[in-house]
Amino acid sequence: MFYKILIRPLLFLFDPEVIHNYILNIVSKHSLLYPVFRIFYSPGDINSVLISDLKFKNRLGLSAGFDKNGIALRFWESLGFSHVEVGTVTPLPQPGNEKPRIFRLKKENALINRLGFNNKGADELKKNIIEARKFTGNDFIVGVNIGKNKDTSIKNALEDYKICFEKLYDEADYFTINISSPNTEGLRLLHEEQYLDTLLSELQKLNHHISDLKSSDVKCIFLKIAPDINNEMIESVYRTAVKNNISGIVATNTTVQRPKIKSDLDEQGGLSGKPLKSMSDKVLKKLNELNKKNLLNPLILIGAGGVFSKKDFDDKINNGASLVQVYTGFIYEGPSLIKKILNKNN
Ligand SMILES: Cc1cc2nc3c(=O)[nH]c(=O)nc-3n(C[C@H](O)[C@H](O)[C@H](O)COP(=O)(O)O)c2cc1C
User: Fold this and answer.
1) For the segment 195-231, what is each residue's pLDDT rounded down to a tens digit?
2) With CB atoms counted within 10 Å of each terminal CB, which end of the chain scores lower, N or C?
3) d(CA 185, ligand 1 centre) in Å
4) Ligand 1 neighbourhood includes 178 CB (under 6 angstroms)
């Protein structure tokens, strides 16, 4: 209530990206406040879950893109998230698209963004994770979401993913391969089997090669997909992921469609938040059906898209998700959303 009545109206007076970066910078620098956040926002003891050898202290995480450069990991941990997906990171730093490039659709509880992978590059992210890791607990999971630079052609995309994978291998608890941002031209072509099969098999080769050199386990690799693909494409992506021993799928990224939008705001980019939920749920449901036909080797499903309440979270779990991630819901509902979702008596 406090957030929605007092804080949110104040934050919403400012440009979405400006206020986002301002708050992120503040919370990343004031570590003395973390115990206070922990008391106010972190949920009580929850049953932890083991997912592909990784122990998550609960099923809720922060979705990719919120903390692209991993500057506030300790803050996310203090709020009670089990995990955060940092990135999308690209090999080289890049500024992203022209501003303004994030827009609020307040009536719809939604955002449109066309950031275009603005980030400080793989080296900077690595440095930030190493620094934060001195303080975060071993039970706080950091996933690294990787992509390609704008100037890299789709034909050469694999090289960019490989660079990010190799550079961040030691820091990532798991990797997510982002093939679904609508704001990098041609990226979504990577859903097509001809590209995806090579991308996944080459990354798995690298995964095995590095793990052999380090005598360590191979890393879990997830694939983040778009909500704008048809059932045939979902089946093809699923088959290719299983064939290449991918751990799981994050469903979904933002949509280029405009379902249930009444505002006349006509901006290009990916739509997230409440209007996305039924689309993302549909993709998750389809993946869950495919899992039921593949009981020997099911994929781990991570649900993202339109989670604003415990009911939305439960919908994702009931549709087969092992983990759930939030982004837009966190902006609209504030940090108390975490307790609302995770505490048993809510
Ligand atoms: C401003 C913004 C930036 C985002 N950046 C990324 C990104 O860099 N990489 C990515 O995989 N997803 C990105 N996403 C997508 C989210 O991680 C999430 O999949 C999507 O927004 C659906 O969840 P939501 O409805 O809870 O926001 C971004 C979303 C928003 C709103």
Assistant:
1) 999 999 999 999 999 999 999 999 999 999 999 999 9
2) N
3) 17
4) yes
